[in-house]
Amino acid sequence: MATKDQVTLNMPLHSITTKIVLWMTVLTPMFKFALQLSPITTSLEVSLYKHCKASRNVLYGLSTLMRSAVLACIAIFAMIFPYFEYIVAFVGSSMTMAICLLFPCSFYLKIFWPKLRPRTKAVILILIILGTIIGICGTIVSVQGLITKRKSS
């Protein structure tokens, strides 16, 4: 039996677990995208609530419309600019490691340095070093992808 190139194609066809995995595969990027847009839309909503004195239902409708407009603008932007995916990958690889790993570890060390045991300090410093290396590698790969795509078109 040959293995197919996608993991989901190798799963049994009529199994309930296959359906769950397929739906999770489809829905995860959509939820992730919505969560990544949340800070932008939340700040716009705060501004909207400060400047607009309307009823709760009107504000909810405006908020929904605004969130949809932000999503539509980004989708249109992605279709207009052919290298948008590589720019997003570049920003993601360069910033995700910083926000998720480097900043929390650095702040933790800064706050609790005198109270930490040497072994704990070493582990956190190793995490910071590995996170930096991974972030740099991801940034290099995304920039190389952008250069390769640009040369081929």
From TrEMBL:
Its main location: membrane. Coiled coil: none annotated. One of its GO terms (cellular component) is vacuolar membrane. It is a multi-pass membrane protein. The chain crosses the membrane at residues 58-81, 87-111, 123-147. The keyword Transferase does not apply. Keywords: Amino-acid transport, Membrane, Transmembrane, Transmembrane helix, Transport. InterPro entries: AA_transpt_TM. Signal peptide: none annotated. One of its GO terms (molecular function) is L-amino acid transmembrane transporter activity. Residues 2-147 form the Amino acid transporter transmembrane domain. It is found in: Membrane. This is Amino acid transporter transmembrane domain-containing protein. It comes from Ceratopteris richardii (Triangle waterfern).
